[in-house]
Amino acid sequence: MAIDTLMAFALFALVSSITPGPNNLMLLASGVNFGFRATLPHMLGISIGFMVLVLAVGVGLAGLFTTFTWLYAVLKWAGAAYLLYLAWNIANAGPLEDKLPENAHKSGPMSFMSAAAFQWINPKAWVMALGAFSTYIPATSGFLIVALAAGVFAVINLPSVGLWALFGAKVRHLLKVERNLRIFNYGMALLLVLSLYPMLVSAQ
């Protein structure tokens, strides 16, 4: 994997991991209700569970793309289109309070195993994994490249999702300020669009 592609992939991993989604919103609610330390198993379950999902998707897609070479181009551009759509949604996102899971506070913190298993039914996790391999990782990558991608995602994902639990426990009030939330959303949307640059250049 070329350095510029790796950097773009890392940027994609950061933006997609740190922006609002089911995992982060549940971590935010858990941080508010149970504190940062009690939310640690939830955070670790997300990171490791998603790493396993990325490995499974990467290994499966490598063989699929070998058989259906045209599928790589289709998924590559479909992934780019979705990322632009996601960037638009991020830039125009409303207050976080409107998206919090209604029942997130009614039980104890999510366990490690529950959080890991949740990744397999989390739509954003699937889109992130598919987008990674259809947009940034070569279609015929071997297992070592797939493992590297999964490792990069895991290393970036854990502190990224951890920030949401920390926000919930310590600084959630910062995201209640409309101006701060707007700046954050615009910045994340811009970074997500910029992460597509190497893919667009290589397609020329």
From TrEMBL:
Keywords: Cell membrane, Membrane, Transmembrane, Transmembrane helix. One of its GO terms (biological process) is cysteine export across plasma membrane. Its main location: membrane. It holds the Pfam family LysE. The keyword Cell membrane applies. The keyword Lipid biosynthesis does not apply. It is a multi-pass membrane protein. It is found in: Cell membrane. GO terms for molecular function: amino acid transmembrane transporter activity. GO terms for cellular component: plasma membrane. It comes from the Bacteria. The chain crosses the membrane at residues 44-65, 70-91, 143-169, 181-200. This is Threonine/homoserine/homoserine lactone efflux protein. It comes from Undibacterium pigrum.
